[in-house]
Design brief:
The chain is α+β, with helices and mostly antiparallel strands. It is built from 2 helices and 10 strands, in the order H-E-E-E-E-E-E-E-H-E-E-E. 24% of the residues lie in helices and 41% in strands. Strand 8 and strand 9 form a beta hairpin. 21% of the residues are buried.
Amino acid sequence: MGHRLVLVSGLVLMLAMLGGCGSDSGSVQEPGDLNGTSWTVVAIRGLPVPDGMKVTAAFDEGKVNGQAACNGYFAGYEQNGTTLTFSELGGTRKMCDEPVMVEEKRFMEAFELVRFGELDGDALILRGGAKEMLVILKPA
């Protein structure tokens, strides 16, 4: 009886592990050409952008620009399939209230780490080198 319980428990555990493999939605795909698209950031490193703060990204002919909570920012970008990199990141330098500056810093630090982009439904997911989720954007 004891061996049968161990065998059944082992099979249940193995089936549960196999069921966890793969994508939940099945809709993850290459982002396509980002040129001419505009987005609103909804989450940074798993935390939602606080209400009232505006973080955006607009892609146009190898350049991206937007609002980073307080300041405007700009950068070059290169895209090849899901590979997405940003270069020469810069921005304006005005000061805002501390919570806004903290959110801006979180965004800019995450943005610099982006190496991949993918679409999941209508969301653009920006990921780092280890495929960790950094930024989630929705169409503007």
